[in-house]
Amino acid sequence: MNNNDNDLMLRIRRMTKVFFPGTSNEKIALNRINLDLKKGEFVTILGANGSGKSTLFNAICGTHELDDGIIILDGSDITWEKEHKRALHISRIYQDPQMGTAPNLTIAENLALAYTRKASPSLFPLNKKDYRFFHEQLEILEMDLELRMNTKIGLLSGGQRQAVSLVMEIISQPKLLLLDEHTAALDPQTSERILDVTNKFVRGAGVTTMMITHNVKDALTNGDRTIVFSNGKIVHDYRGAERDALDPNDLQRLYG
Amino acid sequence: MTIAQVLSAIQLGLLYGILAVGLYIPFRILDIADMSVQGTFTMGMIIAAVFSYNRMPILGIVVAVLGGAVFGIVTGILHTKFNIPSILSGILTMTALYTVNLLIASGKANISLIGKDTIYTIADRLINNDQVTRTVVTLLIVILMTLAIAVFFHTRTGLTIRATGDNAAMVRHTSINTDNMKMIGLSLGNAMAALSGALISQYNLFADVNSGTGILVVALAAIIIGETLFKRNGVTLGLISTVVGSIIYRFIIAIALKFDVLPSYALNLISTIIVIIALMLPAIKETRERKTKKRLHQELVNKYLNDVNNLSAEVEKRIPGQRTNGKSGGKNE
Questions:
Q1: Which 8-state DSSP code applies to residue B19?
Q2: Mind listing the pLDDT tens digit for each residue in A74-104?
């Protein structure tokens, strides 16, 4: 068993969160969730609105404190750790491109900020070495953003901002990457582009990843495992051959 | 204006420019309207005066700056650790400081430094020209301060403070304690306010516990005038434009008082009006631009109403940027 434990990046046991307890609006957002993620695993998450997907992310990040349950990240218990402390190991990208970047800072400054977690401690954030590293990472996007490193983020389009967010989260080398419908606000082409880049980064860095999406096809074609939420519970957990055999149209019915 | 008046406007502009920078840091960089600056400014005055009175003018300035920094942290703790709204935290610190200042001054409302040594009298022994000393010493301090703060805001910590004012949630997700960043910013701002007060008391050879009244508007005026003239553009330029704004403000005040329309006690009213006008300008400009466009449009429509083809041709002529239609292959977007 112990050997097996070392392969696990995230272990969640009996994770429970109730909103408005004791009132007529009481809602069990997370109902005794158990979930294990292997190191490097890329899991996609499906589920209707209000089924508990985002609450799961908020609980893992520490935005919400749990009513009950245990969260173990890479062998250490983080259940009661403060949000900004966990952020050292957990990265998250939101649906809204505005949320992940500081609009009045330049691309380079935003990257430097994200990299502060992992960069060698230097007085000035934009030294030559880091600058070159950021340049290389932006090149992977193939969006010519490496030529505009001194442009304020606020001047970029939503897709470009989301792409920069992705680079920011990847260079901070998280143990866990949470993608919260990060392509939902983008047009189909840009969305596909960002998904491509996501795969490239996630596989390249081998980072353990969870991705919430409402696009059933995206959920099945990306990653190596798909879980389905309903009413605060995980109702399906597909992987391997079973997952490959799934028809997106069948899954679509789960939303009904 | 005589040369002495011009120099005095520049000197005062620089001295209050330090205060304006002290407000600029919380107000524009952290997006916190920090009222405690008013209290720490007066505290700087009183501390420096008490020390100068006891023949320690330079130490007085240092202690004043440290005192300002401490009370900036007090505001920061109230705001971040106890979730008291930032405006309220500032007001609480400012009000408490009134008593603290009286305590420092041993209950006296004002302190006169006539005949005592100050940083200016010490420097004047080398230069031997009062006006030159006042200008050079003040200018030197302002340049050093602006440079130091500008460099600071380009360090890792400085960058994080700027980002905290820009998108605090994102900074928290970067695993940085935004509370500490706000505290550093508030501490730095109040330290500058205290430095400004300290130098002004030594400059005027006088400190009064009531000197802080209306001082926030003076600092605000400097920031707004600077921004109106130089646009909002990065920290370094922002700091410089704030100091320049403060000097321009002093000239406006000097001219306003020269005409003797209003008595000298009308200073706060004049300051307020200047700030209001500066704040109104963008809205007035926008309305006027819209009116001009509408008028031109109306003229055109009246002229070509029955000839829509010609109308569209005329409109085409007016669209800016279309005239250089050559395929230069310049930058996209």
A1: H
A2: 999 999 988 888 888 999 999 888 888 999 9
Tally Cβ neighbours within 10 Å of residue B172: 20
Take residue B153 and report the two structure tokens written for it.
């805001």
Contacts of B95 by beta carbon, 8 Å cutoff, 6+ apart: B39
DSSP-derived letter for residue B312 is: H
Pair of tokens at residue B194: 């205290």
Cβ-defined contact of A172 to B174 (cutoff 8 Å):
yes
In terms of domains, do A186 and A168 share one?
no
The answer for residues whose C-beta is within 8 angstroms of residue B258's C-beta and 6 or more apart is: B1
- What are the tens digits of pLDDT across the range B170-211? 888 888 889 999 999 999 999 999 999 999 999 999 999 999
Question: How many domains does one find in chain A?
Answer: 2
H-state helical runs in B205-266 = 215-230, 235-258
SS (H, E, C) A121-169: CCCCCCCHHHHHHHHHHHHHHCCCHHHHCCCEHHHCCHHHHHHHHHHHH
**Per-residue pLDDT at B330:** 39
Domain end call among A114, A147, A173: A173
Q: Indicate if A75 and A107 belong to the same structural domain.
A: no
* pLDDT > 70 in chain A, percent: 96
Of the residues A132, A148, A173, which one is the last residue of a structural domain?
A173
A84: contact with B, CB 8 A cutoff:
yes
How many Å separate Cα B140 from the centre of its chain?
A: 18
A99, A117, A121 ranked by CB distance to B175: nearest: A117
Chain CA centroid to CA A157, Å: 21
Q: What is the DSSP letter of B25?
A: I
The set of residues, in sequence order, having a beta carbon less than 8 Å from that of B327 and lying 6+ positions away, is none
Whole-model pTM? 0.84
Question: In a 3-state reduction of DSSP, which class is residue B79?
Answer: helix
Residues 44-63 of A with CB under 8 A from B: 61
Per-residue confidence at B69, pLDDT binned at 50, 70, 90? very high
Query: For chain A, what's the residue count?
Result: 256
SS3 A91: strand
Spatial distance between the Cα atoms of B117 and A11, rounded to a whole number of angstroms = 69
Q: Which of B160, B170, B178 has its CB closest to that of A101?
A: B170
Do A239 and A195 lie in one domain? The reply is yes
A85-94 burial code (b ≥16 CB/10 A, e <16): ebbbbbbbbb
Amino acid at B183: M
Would an 8 Å CB–CB cutoff place A40 in contact with chain B?
no
Of B184, B172, B196, B208, nearest to B50 (Cα)? B208
**Residues 6+ away with beta carbon under 8 Å from B251:** B9, B13
DSSP state of A106: B
Beta bridge pairs of residue A234 = A229
- The domain B3-261 is placed in CATH, from the list 2.40.50, 1.10.10, 1.10.540, 1.10.3470, at 1.10.3470
Type of residue found at A197? V
Average pLDDT score over residue span A124-138: 87
Query: Which residues form the domain of A130?
Result: 93-173
Q: Which residue in chain B has the smallest CA separation from A168?
A: B174
- The shares of helix, strand and coil residues in chain A, as percent rounded to the nearest 5, are 40, 25, 35
